[in-house]
Design a protein that fits this description.
Strand content: 15-25%
Largest sheet: 6 strands, mixed
Structural class: alpha/beta
Helix content: 40-55%
Family: Belongs to the enoyl-CoA hydratase/isomerase family.
GO cellular component, one term: mitochondrion
CATH superfamily of the largest domain: 2-enoyl-CoA Hydratase, Chain A, domain 1
Mean pLDDT: 90
Strand order of the largest sheet: 1-2-4-7-9-12
CATH class of the largest domain: Alpha Beta
Low-confidence stretches: 280-285
Keywords: Fatty acid metabolism, Isomerase, Lipid metabolism
Distance between the termini: 6 Å
Pathway: Lipid metabolism; fatty acid beta-oxidation
Number of helices: 11
CATH topology of the largest domain: 2-enoyl-CoA Hydratase, Chain A, domain 1
Order of helices and strands: EEEHEEEHHEEHEEHHEHEHHHH
GO molecular function, one term: delta(3,5)-delta(2,4)-dienoyl-CoA isomerase activity
Number of domains: 2
Length: about 290
């Protein structure tokens, strides 16, 4: 998987069809423009190439921090290089908006993937880190986690958190105060699905094991479930039921059902075909 690794992102395959995506910009994973563009590009390239990925885990290589958020020393990280101050305010604002939308697109890349993306977080998660983990499907954290949402979040937190947690009161409190909160509080409001006792090593281990288990399931069923859950989040119940009916009208025609029945009957491992035939890489493998 070295093909998809970049200067500050390491991509490996610890189990078949499972990716481990590690943030590795010393010293604290502060996000410059190049870093966030690279982050989104890793996911988009893997999907575009049709690589047979069934699940992925995002972690940090640094034991005490997931990310410190934006690199405030990099003007491009904040979209500063997109604003032309020689023009009037409206035109400069349009340039800034374009940069912010590109930023949102990059950080939201995990949600666009047809496979589940699990965030395994530890240490400190500051500012942009909250946007990042909110765009992932599942969030595991170690007990010593500390989260700081930051102020004026514009890359995803304010859109995701009310829907993830269902607690508008607390989301507003956290956004207005930018106070740090713990793994216990994040777990209580539903931001996390599991708090793991131990260190970085343990939470990463458990997240990778979850990804490995998901990878043994039907890719059609998992991908369809992800798509329909996201649709349900953004639509009302009647709309989602109608959409699910249309979606499953074709999804239930999959050979994965008969393959799963065969594997169950013979007590062997199911062998599911990839979701997508590689387009840019003939016979691409992890």
């Amino acid at each position: 998987m070295d093909k998809y690794s970049t200067k500050w992102i390491k991509v490996s395959e610890p189990y078949p069809h499972v990716l481990h995506i590690q943030l590795a910009r010393s010293p604290v994973n502060a996000f410059s423009q190049e870093f966030w563009q690279s982050y989104g590009g890793v996911f988009d390239s893997i999907v575009a190439d049709g690589v047979d990925v069934r699940a992925a885990v995002v972690t940090s290589v640094f034991p005490n921090i997931f990310t410190a958020g934006l690199d405030l020393g990099d003007a491009g990280a904040l979209g500063g290089d997109g604003a032309d101050t020689s023009r009037d305010g409206a035109r400069s604002s349009l340039a800034m908006r374009k940069k912010l939308l590109e930023f949102q697109q990059a950080i939201g890349a995990p949600e666009r993937c047809p496979f589940p993306v699990i965030a395994a977080v530890h240490g400190h998660v500051i500012g942009l880190g909250v946007d990042m983990i909110s765009a992932c499907d599942i969030r595991y954290a170690c007990r010593r986690l500390q989260i700081d949402i930051g102020l004026a979040a514009d890359i995803g937190s304010l859109a995701y958190l009310p829907r993830i947690t269902g607690n508008h009161s607390l989301v507003r409190e956290l956004a207005y105060t930018a106070r740090t909160f713990s793994a216990a509080e994040a777990d209580k409001i539903g931001l996390l699905s599991k708090v793991v006792e131990g260190s970085q090593e343990q939470v990463v281990k458990e997240a990778l094991e979850l990804a490995r288990f998901i990878s043994t399931k039907s890719p059609i069923a998992v991908s369809g479930s992800k798509h329909l859950i996201t649709h349900a989040r953004d639509h009302n119940v009647p709309e989602n039921l109608a959409y699910t009916g249309a979606w499953n009208a074709h999804a239930l025609m999959t050979n994965d059902i008969s393959e799963n029945l065969r594997a169950t009957k013979t007590k062997t491992k199911a062998k599911f075909t990839p979701l997508k035939i590689p387009s840019r890489l003939e016979g691409a493998k992890l």
